Amino acid sequence: MGATPRNTDCIFCKIIGGEIPCSKVFESETVFAFLDIAPVNLGHALVIPKGHYPQLGELPIALGNDLLEALKVVGNAVMQAAKAEGLNIGMNNFEAAGQLVMHAHFHVIPRFADDGLTLWPSKKYTSMDEMNSLAETIRNLIK
Ligand code: 5GP
Ligand code: ZN
């Protein structure tokens, strides 16, 4: 992998560089994790690559192992520390999906059966044809 990209205007790059304080929970050569300042539940952490990559699409595949390992280690510790019963891992990509900080990050959110949060509402396909046709379009784009 090449040199780690940095963005001097990025709040998460500043946190990694120590210019902005944070409550750090994990650090490796390539990955950093700290508590979200506005947690969904207490213990909500953010796992981020040290390099400045805006969204999932820019993340180098070579970071996959390190990110997955950090998500597992941090997720396990967050669950234990918060005495949680469940765990959500989430990633917002682009403004329309709720991404506010344009440095790719994974939310690690401890969950409780009675925490009152609900997941996304669901929609319906008008037919199996519509669903299969969309699946075909997606498959063709992946090829
Ligand atoms: P997004 O909406 O981009 O997926 O999530 C960005 C997250 O970063 C939000 O949950 C927000 O609370 C958190 N955040 C933004 N600025 C700071 C900060 O300066 N420190 C910490 N610890 N979290 C931050
Ligand atoms: Zn950044």
Measured between the Cα atoms of the first and last residue, the distance is 25 Å
Q: How do the strands of the widest beta sheet line up side by side?
A: 1-2-3-5-4
For this structure, what is the CATH homologous superfamily?
Answer: HIT-like
Give the distinct bound molecules. Answer: guanosine-5'-monophosphate, zinc ion
Explain what the structure shows:
The protein has one domain (about 10-115): HIT-like (HIT family, subunit A, 2-Layer Sandwich). The protein has helices at about 10-15, 65-80, 130-140; strands spanning about 25, 30-35, 45-50, 85-90, 105-110. It is built from 3 helices and 5 strands; from the N terminus they run αβββαββα. Helix content is about 30%, strand content about 15%. It is α+β, with helices and mostly antiparallel strands. The structure holds guanosine-5'-monophosphate (5GP) and zinc ion. Guanosine-5'-monophosphate (5GP) binds next to strand 2.
